[in-house]
Amino acid sequence: MSETAVKAPGVPDANRWKALTFIALAQLMVVLDATIVNIALPSAQQDLGISDGNRQWVITAYALAFGGLLLFGGRIADLWGRKRTFVAGLIGFAGASALGGAATNEAMMLGARALQGAFGALLAPAALSLLAVMFTEPKERAKAFGIYGAIAGGGGAVGFILGGVLTEYLDWRWTFFVNIPFAIIAAAGAYYVIREPAGGRNRSPLDIPGVILSILGLVTLVYAFTRAESDGWGDSTTVGLFVASAVLLAAFVLVESRVKAPLLPLRVITERNRGGVYLSLGLAIIAMFGLFLFLTYYLQIVKGYSPVKTGFAFLPMIGGMMVGSTQIGTRLMTRVPPRFLMAPGFLVAALGMLILTRLEIGSTYSSTILPGMILLGLGMGTAFMPAMSLSTHGVEPRDAGVASAMVNTSQQVGGAIGTALLNTIAASATTSYIKGHIGGAGSQAQQQLVQLEGQVHGYTNAIWFAVGILVVAATVAATFINTGRPGSTTVTGSDEGAAEELAVPVIAH
């Protein structure tokens, strides 16, 4: 790494806005990949001869590697240097994407997806922690995290559009190959532009027991939720996996409280503001991921939309997120405490979801889906922006990587829970509805109508639960997060229990 990779502490980096461009590009690539492959999956399954029973592993292999290795990736960024880790993650992600696009069989595809997840776990926390240590002035920090939050929130929906266009007009393999130019441009730009503040590394020896327990615990937890979706919550293996994950994660916490140089210092998650962010963000992602799934099913199966048309149907939500994050959140963050953005933001998003509980077979896009999506986007964008900034609130530079990894971990686990839990609720409500109404359907056309009505009934039942989850997220944000607006001198509890600290959400004190 060149000597220009490090700058003097306390001096703003002249290239920080250029650096943000490449960090945002990398973040967009990672978030896009979470949804773009869903659109391409049916075509890839057919070409590679993947069975129906194994097709979920194209998604699960990525989720397990990404979710399981995030904390380790964050610690590597603190130890090895965030710029170096960021560039290595980008190069590895590009290579894994090339392997996936060139896959000739099931094993090659699953291996490529696991490698993508592993390099994504290096890349994601390094990207967020670079922002945290480069932007410390409150107004600039608000703008930078506004852009990052908009991409983190809206990038997944962009994946639906891009995935639909690439699959429909080119080939499913391009949903992998499209990552390569993203990664090369971001890596080259980052190498020449990013300069880390000096003295921000954590050179303590690696906590090997913590690494092993965190990987095993998180992989087991994510897999348990994935299995619950396919095999049911009462399945003995599913229950065993949940018990095992609880034991492993409890052991991880015990080890972290006793070792000299922990993988995840408990001070990172026990500070009430950061803890409130991780919990409320995880809850919001549970609701949001489930909704993405149901709206996609509704638009394609019930309304007959093509993949491309479905993708474009999500555009108003992306627009809402961009406005909420870069206009509302960024403009107000330096004027009001973060909880006054996060809690109302989650409630506005809940209102948008409440409108979507009115979905019926005959609902029109403009009357129900459009207003619901706009409110959902505005609310989530407004809430995500301060959440991303607060995720590294008050941490020392040496902990910035692992604190950033906790945001991604809460999102990843939230996504796994949301998909499994809300899918189960929807499936149960659908089955119950069809059983209660199929007897009165005489003709085949009437039976098909009951089947569709049952599916929509299942979606709206699950969305009701998502509304409740967002209300809980708003409550958590309002009660846990008590820091003042950036630049104020509100007294809050510090990590170490000191009497007071400034409420400026910057990394170094």
TrEMBL record:
SUPFAM superfamilies: MFS general substrate transporter (SSF103473). The keyword NADP does not apply. It comes from the Bacteria. Pfam families: MFS_1 (PF07690). It is a multi-pass membrane protein. Keywords: Antibiotic resistance, Cell membrane, Membrane, Transmembrane, Transmembrane helix, Transport. The keyword Cell membrane applies. Its main location: membrane. The chain crosses the membrane at residues 20-41, 56-73, 85-103, 115-135, 147-166, 172-194, 206-225, 237-255, 276-299, 311-328, 340-357, 369-388, 462-481. It is found in: Cell membrane. Residues 19-485 form the Major facilitator superfamily (MFS) profile domain. PANTHER family: BLR6921 PROTEIN, MAJOR FACILITATOR SUPERFAMILY MULTIDRUG TRANSPORTER MFSC. This is MFS transporter. It comes from Streptomyces cellulosae. The lineage of its organism: Bacteria, Bacillati, Actinomycetota, Actinomycetes, Kitasatosporales.
